[in-house]
Amino acid sequence: MQKRVVFRSRLLPYLLVLPQIAITLIFFFWPAYQALESSFFIEDAFGFSRQWVAMQNYVELFEDPSYLRSFKTTLIFGVSVAVMAMSISLGLAVAANRVVKAATGYRTMLIWPYAVAPALAGVIWYFLMNPSLGIVAYWLKNVGVDWNHYLNGDQALLLVIVAAAWKQVSYNFLFFLAGLQSIPKSLIEAAAIDRAGPVRRFWTIVFPLLTPTTFFLLVVNLVYAFFDTFALVHATTEGGPVDATSILVFRVYNTGFIGQDYGSSAAQSVILMGLVIMMTFVQFRFVERKVQY
Amino acid sequence: MKLKSILSATTVLAMAATTAAADKAEVQFWHAMGGQLGEIVDKFAADYNGGSDSCQINAVYKGNYTENMTAAIAAFRAGEQPHIVQVFEVGTATMMAAGEKGAIYPVHELMADAGVDFDQSAYLPAVVSYYTDTDNKLLSMPFNSSTPVLWYNKTALDAAGVAVPTTWDEVEVAARALKESGVTKPFSFGWQSWSNIENYSAWHNLPVGSEENGFASLKTEFTFNNEAVVNHIQRIADMGEEGTFVYGGRRGDSRAQFVNGETALWINSSAYYGGFKKDITEFEFGQAMLPLDTAVADAPQNSIIGGATLWVLQGHESPEYACVADFFQFVSAAEQQAYWHQETGYVPITNAAYDLSQEQKFYESDPMTDTAIKQLSLNTPTPASKGVRFGNFVQVRDIINEELEAVWSGQKDAQTALDEAVARGNKLLRKFEAANK
């Protein structure tokens, strides 16, 4: 038997959700529509004239092999950032959860990097890894690695992945820690009494109970990697060498804001939007089934 | 309580600021000069405001060149544009195209309308020619201009027993000798499209594109995949293979290599002088003219500039424009320009400022700092050496960066890469032509 609360007035429920709908329409649907519209035009920088070109902006993109390569780069980038950021932060959260002394101190320190802007995070790593100045590059040289991300595309991609992941670790840490603390102690203790070791306890009890958090973070991290990282790439590699670090969102930014080519930039953002919608759909449809709420 | 007093204090301050400026015409000046350069720009604005009864210049730093230009364009579209905006040389075609639609107040018109006696011939031809229309009328006010020079580490060259190279063949020989004497990355450069394609071409009087490097019309097409440039790029690639050239990134990223002594021959802007003077203490450095490719030309033509000019945007009141004209006169006066030149390494944009620097014996205390100006005024600029004016050029430079990086990393040979750069660049030129019909 289910208890149902029914509004007396028919209008009231609509009135109550109206602010939320208005916000969504103004701040999400309106800009998305504008992007869609602009993608069918070419326009001069100052906005004096625009011409209808139908699908030309899209056709040009898909004829450009460099743009097509970006899909692969973006996929590698996104998955690596999410996996790296989440696994490191899970490890840290588990460790921090066991600390008894000065726990708040540790936690504060681990949350700190979240306050750093993506562009700055990029610059920090850029200095650490600079082939001429960077301390990390210097260590690498001492162990025989010839580090020059200006020339080596794989190294450049690794650099932006590490920088982007580092930036996200704190955020994930916060959620994992909260998730860990909400796991009933009694379950873990019961397992311990049944002689399950810490590793076994983690994989059979803690990790499955964390899946809602993990799933949430997976979505958030992928969205972060796909959308939020252009400033980081712009501040470090500028998409190079060649196009090794030209992820899709960086191209949107570079074409629109640096190159003043609004039509192509809009077309790219529409494609990117479609991609992320698809990805999120897949996640909710297939990955969410494995989540144990 | 505390918050309240802070709030009221700010209100009072804000009111004081408005009343002080109320009887003065206010001019917004958006620029892209950070750090030491920004301090000098602020000083210029403050000095000017102090001496003017009717004008107030508000200099605002808006980020780097591209950010500043993007901000100004966005502001224009919203009807909130500044009076003056500093735009780098590659943005010239975009600004000019907007000028034809009435967004720009050309400097020659501004000066005439304000009744200022403006003598265009007082400026260096190589600087002015980059920013004039087809009737040789000045469109924007030159402010900070530089040109690439060959920076060298004298201590390292002496140790290797070689003289400063003057030709590209000598660069190869010197780089080899430097490598043997223990310099790890003997030769490098920054802003590669500017230094090794645009300036290499101008220096040897070769066009980069058709239609007078884009000055004559929007129909221009790139031609820098010619034999001379291909051979030049291939030469550098071969040096890379040999280990005597090491690529150090886009923009000025390879500066660190030169400053810490890993690189002893470095081609980049003369405007690095101010910073080098502060940062380099461990060795003696100097600057020389760009090397000559003796297979291409017997003597150098002239190099072209980089840097930025001040554009005036339409849509404000005429008393304010009178202030703009007056301020332009102020910043291009010999005293200001000589100070700017000596502090930063940018070229003095007028002959008077050059003469004043000579009078002040600047070139005796800081030898070779006139290399840039000598390079620029070596000969009367030709259609191939007065500059470049291509639409979407910011993106084209990115394409050139990408293709050259493919050469430096051995993925492509010079011919393939430059052919592709030209083909991709031409597409963007056509797009610009279509968007600015």
UniProtKB/TrEMBL annotation, chain A:
Q: Which GO terms describe its cellular component?
A: plasma membrane
Is Nuclease among the key words of this record?
A: no
Residues folding into a coiled coil are none
Q: Name one GO biological process term.
A: transmembrane transport
Q: Which PROSITE patterns match?
A: ABC_TM1
Q: Which Pfam families does the record cross-reference, listed alphabetically?
A: BPD_transp_1 (PF00528)
Q: What keywords appear on the UniProt entry?
A: Cell inner membrane, Cell membrane, Membrane, Transmembrane, Transmembrane helix, Transport
Q: Where is the ABC transmembrane type-1 domain?
A: 71-283
InterPro entries linked to this entry = MetI-like, MetI-like_sf, UgpAE/MalFG_permease
Quaternary structure and partners? The complex is composed of two ATP-binding proteins (UgpC), two transmembrane proteins (UgpA and UgpE) and a solute-binding protein (UgpB).
Question: What does the UniProt function comment say about this protein?
Answer: Part of the ABC transporter complex UgpBAEC involved in sn-glycerol-3-phosphate (G3P) import. Probably responsible for the translocation of the substrate across the membrane.
Q: What PANTHER family does the record point to?
A: BLL4140 PROTEIN (PTHR43227), SN-GLYCEROL-3-PHOSPHATE TRANSPORT SYSTEM PERMEASE PROTEIN UGPA (PTHR43227:SF9)
What the record says about family reads: Belongs to the binding-protein-dependent transport system permease family.
- Protein's recorded name: sn-glycerol-3-phosphate transport system permease protein UgpA
From which source organism is this entry? Parasedimentitalea maritima
Gene that this sequence comes from: ugpA
Automatic annotation (TrEMBL), chain B:
Q: Which domain of life is it from?
A: Bacteria
Q: Which InterPro entries match?
A: Bact_solute-bd_prot1, SBP
Where does the signal sequence lie?
1-22
Q: Is this entry keyworded Signal?
A: yes
Task: Alphabetically list the UniProt keywords.
Answer: Signal, Transport
Give the location in the cell. Answer: Periplasm
Primary localisation category = periplasm
Record-stated family = Belongs to the bacterial solute-binding protein 1 family.
Protein task? Part of the ABC transporter complex UgpBAEC involved in sn-glycerol-3-phosphate (G3P) import. Binds G3P.
How does the annotation summarize its subunit structure? The complex is composed of two ATP-binding proteins (UgpC), two transmembrane proteins (UgpA and UgpE) and a solute-binding protein (UgpB).
What protein name does the entry list? sn-glycerol-3-phosphate-binding periplasmic protein UgpB
